[in-house]
Write a structure and sequence with these properties.
Blueprint: E1 11-13, H1 27-36, E2 39-44, H2 52-61, E3 65-67, H3 80-93, E4 99-105, H4 113-129, E5 134-139, H5 142-150, E6 157-159, H6 166-174, E7 178-181, H7 192-199, E8 204-206, H8 228-239, H9 243-257
Parallel strand pairs: 1-2, 2-3, 4-5, 5-6, 6-7, 7-8
Helix pairs in contact: 3-4, 8-9
The structure holds zinc ion (ZN).
């Protein structure tokens, strides 16, 4: 009989903005709750230079937090190159876990569409030069982001907060990218549960996007890393895999992508 491999079950929240003011009153307690829910690692996505310092302070203060660096598409404007210079400066000083979050967002504002494309392409090049994965934010722009990624065959990463259809999921998997799955999979009528049932979990990593997009039954409230458990429970129900197997699979995927050892 084969020896049962030792499974040290834990989860990684691959996308948590725990440095934002929503956590100023109880950040330590929220991270404690995460540990108790076996969410051992939180990965912090950057937004822009207005929050770099608080993000890096949180990373330095708490164990098992790892910061990315990057310019969020909603922070792209005519001054975006200044922001990219700040990012390059940070990258010369220390290591980051990924370039993110970067991408395209056509939901809120289309004023800077062209500049969003420029900033996205340039940051992918920065990621390749620094041998880092990218974390993609794509709102109303999944197909456009897929097209951009196709132009950079050397880059790897994740489509964070994936909520597209089966065809888009398959294209992303074919590119060797991960799908970041969070609270949306628990939302009724989002349809993501059906997509997951079809494509399986081979390229899935878990995320909360805290403080946003809390899973059911906390939908509409503040999200936090401990709620990864609710996302995992939903995936367990959809896939007939145990919680241990979900943890092992998604944590291995995340460790591989972010080179965590
Ligand atoms: Zn985010």
């Amino acid at each position: 009989m084969p020896v049962q491999p030792f499974i040290s079950m834990y989860f990684i929240d691959t996308h948590a903005h725990i440095y934002l003011p929503e956590f100023d009153d109880d950040r330590a307690a929220a991270l404690q709750r995460a540990q108790e829910a076996n969410v051992k690692i939180s990965i912090l996505p950057a937004i822009d230079s207005s929050t770099h310092d608080t993000m890096l302070n949180v990373e330095a203060t708490y164990e098992n937090c790892y910061a990315m660096i990057g310019l969020h598409p909603c922070s792209v404007n005519q001054d975006y190159e200044k922001e990219l210079n700040i990012i390059e400066k940070h990258l010369k000083q220390r290591k980051f876990i990924a370039i993110g979050e970067i991408g395209l967002d056509f939901y809120w504002d289309k004023t800077f569409t062209e500049l969003q494309y420029q900033a996205f392409h340039k940051q992918i090049e920065v990621a390749i030069q620094n041998d880092l994965p990218i974390v993609i934010h794509s709102r109303n722009a999944i197909d456009e982001c897929i097209d951009v990624v196709k132009e950079h065959p050397r880059v790897t990463g994740v489509f964070h907060c994936f909520s597209g259809n089966e065809e888009q999921a398959r294209k992303i998997i074919d590119l060797g990218f991960m799908l970041g799955i969070g609270g949306v999979v628990t939302f009724k009528n989002a349809g993501l549960d059906k997509v997951i049932e079809k494509i399986g979990l081979t390229n899935v990593i878990l995320e909360t996007d805290a403080p946003y997009l809390a899973p059911v039954p906390y939908r509409g409230k503040r999200n936090e890393p401990a709620y990864i458990k609710l996302v995992a429970e939903k995936l367990s129900a959809l896939s007939n895999l145990s919680m241990e197997e979900i943890a092992e699979l998604t944590t291995e995927n995340a460790k591989k992508l972010f080179k965590l050892r």
